[in-house]
Amino acid sequence: MIITSRFFNRSELMGFIALAAVLFVILPLTLDVFRLNLVAKYLTYAFVALGLVLCWGYGGILSLGQGVFFGLGGYCMAMFLKLEASSVENTKIQSTPGIPDFMDWNQITSLPLFWQPFHSLAFTILAIILVPGLFALIIGTAMFKRRVGGTYFAIITQAVAAILTILIVGQQGYTGGINGMTDLRTLKGWDIRPDHAKIVLYFVEVVLLFACIGIAQFIRLTKLGRILVAMREQEDRVRFSGYSVANFKIFAFCMAAVFAAIGGATFALNVGFMSPSFVGIVPSIEMVIYTAVGGRMSIFGAIWGAILVNFAKTSLSESFPQLWLFGLGALFIAVVLAFPNGLSGLWADYVQPRIDRLFASRKAKPGWNDNSVADGAPAE
Amino acid sequence: MLIGHQPKDFLLAVSGLTVSFDGFKAVNDLSFYVEENEIRVIIGPNGAGKTTVLDLICGKTKATSGSIQFRGKELTKMRENEIVQTGVGRKFQTPSVFEDLTVFENLEISFPRGRTVFGSLTFQRDQPVTDRVEEVAEMIFLKDKLNTYADELSHGQKQWLEIGMLLIQDPDLLMLDEPVAGMSVSERAKTAELLNRIIKNRSVLVIEHDMKFVEDIAHKVTVLHQGQILSEGTMEKVKNDPKVVEVYLGH
């Protein structure tokens, strides 16, 4: 008997339908534009979580520097939007009109060379994918070809996040510094600030998220997805089955980087600014926490993790601004110690069996053999 | 020592192989030759360097000096996955199978096709793959367990699965590190039967402590002691070598 390879098994299909219903129908109908825009902000982290599922959950590569790629994607998008907002008539009070305001404040008198191509939207979209992708390729090649992995790799990604933050803050004239790039206004002349634009951008983001889910699921179902799992457990056995382990790690890391970058780009669009506070060590660790809480082995679990933890962050940090960070830390420790597969693990262990029983008793149809295929279920 | 010209029919020619870990020579100026279709067993006391020799051949450990020629290709300069692709398969001492994958998926990963990133993205589970996986699963007594996750297998079954994963690679040189260790008596007999079937048309290098098992399968035995060859030849010759009796068999 061979396992039939369908794109989603039954429980994944339910997860897909539930997420689609909530994001496409329920939230837009029930929330006001302000709250919907908050959800859009949460969802930008869902892209990162999705990448971490492939890279960390499947491949076993813990990256504590996903903020780097989120930031690179976000800055690429923000640079395009900032240039459009800095047209000559918008900036005629500056000493050098036509360049972004922060450059003018820093006595820069002409647009730096690396900003020039960001006049083009097509270039910007390519850059959102390629800049973080190539950066991940370089880091990945340097690390994985030398067999740097595990904790060492995690620490190095942290260092990269710290370095990039310092670089952005330090190069104020080129990057906007600690304030980031603010006052983003239009996309090809279309104002991104009013309510109806926010609704459109929300739907664009959700469609992109589902496209990324499709890609991640496709990768998971190919032999490459199984090699990632195999690598996580028995790296040597994969190597001695004739595979170059480093190349597969680099691929997973690059995919995670590209997903994070798409998230960053949608952040710039939906939230309307980009700053180094989404690049550094703390946001990078938070991104790992969303994934861990949702379930690092489950695509849908990780997305719910990103939404729910961010929702909790917004609500709790309003009431207990000091205590929130401790709460987040405690949550992470609790998840790692008590339920390593996160919310999706709890779901698979406690809720799913009940639903299955309900189904089985109602249908009273013996012998449907989906259990063996059920995925996202914890291994031990 | 044979140095210089070797006859052409050696599959594997190890010469002057040395590896030192912080000055300790785990393998010291070792030379031996394995012919086509030969079954060679390496025995020796603990710490003799047996596993290190296999590690050196398959590229897990890099040699300090010396050469390993496989069909005329120098293995010491190749990466592990390239060594596998030239036809050397390695089974580890502790069963290393992918526990979160099914028996079918374990075998499928070892199928020698689509070993690049792009190749594995476009890999199709077609008829030749399925047929070969089922054929090998039958040989390793796991035909009815294809959809079982490997973590549910017994120790012996995991050993068989790993042997199966090597078989599907179809290597010209198969290296087995204690294939029957930790097995029950009946599993041991089945494994001997399995090995006798799979050694056809290939050379095998085995490390084993079980003397009865060694006698059953070995064409030639190499006795290692402190990283060097103590004795080499047929089981009969080695068994009666006084040096061997003293350091190893006498215990």
Automatic annotation (TrEMBL), chain A:
It comes from the Bacteria. InterPro entries: ABC_transp_permease, ABC_transptr_urea_perm_UrtC, LivM-like. It is found in: Cell membrane. It is a multi-pass membrane protein. One of its GO terms (cellular component) is plasma membrane. GO terms for molecular function: branched-chain amino acid transmembrane transporter activity. Its main location: membrane. Keywords: Cell membrane, Membrane, Transmembrane, Transmembrane helix. The chain crosses the membrane at residues 12-30, 42-61, 121-144, 151-174, 199-219, 240-267, 287-311, 323-343. NCBIfam families: urea_trans_UrtC. This is Urea ABC transporter permease. It comes from Bradyrhizobium nanningense.
From TrEMBL, chain B:
Keywords: ATP-binding, Nucleotide-binding, Transport. One of its GO terms (molecular function) is ATP hydrolysis activity. The keyword ATP-binding applies. It holds the Pfam family ABC_tran. Gene3D superfamilies: P-loop containing nucleotide triphosphate hydrolases. Coiled coil: none annotated. This is Urea ABC transporter ATP-binding protein. It comes from Bradyrhizobium nanningense. The lineage of its organism: Bacteria, Pseudomonadati, Pseudomonadota, Alphaproteobacteria, Hyphomicrobiales.
